[in-house]
Amino acid sequence: MLLIADDEQSDKHGYMRMVQGRRVDALIVAHTLDDDPRLAQLQDSGFPFLALGRSRLAQPYAWFDFDNYAGTCRATRHLIQQGHQRIALLGENNNQAFILQRRNGYLDALREAGLSDAWLRSVPATRRGGYQATLELLRLPEPPTAIITDCNTHGDGAAMALAHLGRLTGDNRVALVVYDGLPQDSIIETDVAAVIQSTRQGVGRQIADMVRRLIAGEDLASLQVLWQPEFIPGETA
């Protein structure tokens, strides 16, 4: 079973009825929060679950995650090494754990270099949101010379805005890094820099193996897996 944290219309007690009735062997909990009441409730009940993301819990639990902090930190450090000092981040506007981790990776890399975070923006995870935010940033008296997006949907919007202005490539380009790379249906043909995590097939196999081991009763401390992302500079960073 898959639980979605940000679905406000979902039955928040439905999964506990399944737990209490033992109608499932284990739960997979997605879109975790730093302080996630669902995980705490499941842990208190003693029911096996695998969290897709990390949260603050009193006892060990099974989780699978990507090092989201490392992804944006590495991308930001790369841009700083390229000479950029005004680096923007377009971040999703909610409090899911992976979003906060990506934001903190960006902020810490800036702090290390003594740079300002004045170009940090919270935007909806839409192409329109990324497009409009990019145009607004470039109208500033001191616009950013580089942009990182923590979501590939608004990252595609940012790429479209830069392409429209003739600033995605060439001598006057604004460096762009898109977390997860541009979507498959993007109309942008430029090889945009990306932070890449893994294929869906690879993730699916890993999760399936961990759930099998969880149901078999393996030690929870052995079911905590953190995968590292890869930074690909492409043509835009």
UniProtKB/TrEMBL annotation:
Organism, scientific name: Klebsiella variicola
Keywords, in A-Z order: DNA-binding, Transcription, Transcription regulation
GO molecular function, one term: DNA-binding transcription factor activity
Superkingdom of this protein's organism: Bacteria
Record-given protein name: ThuR
Signal sequence interval, chain numbering: none
Name of encoding gene: rafR_2
Pfam families the record matches: Peripla_BP_1
Coiled-coil portions: none
Ranges of residues in domain Periplasmic binding protein/LacI sugar binding: 2-217
InterPro entries reported in the protein's UniProt record: Peripla_BP/Lac1_sug-bd_dom, Peripla_BP_I
SUPFAM superfamilies in alphabetical order: Periplasmic binding protein-like I
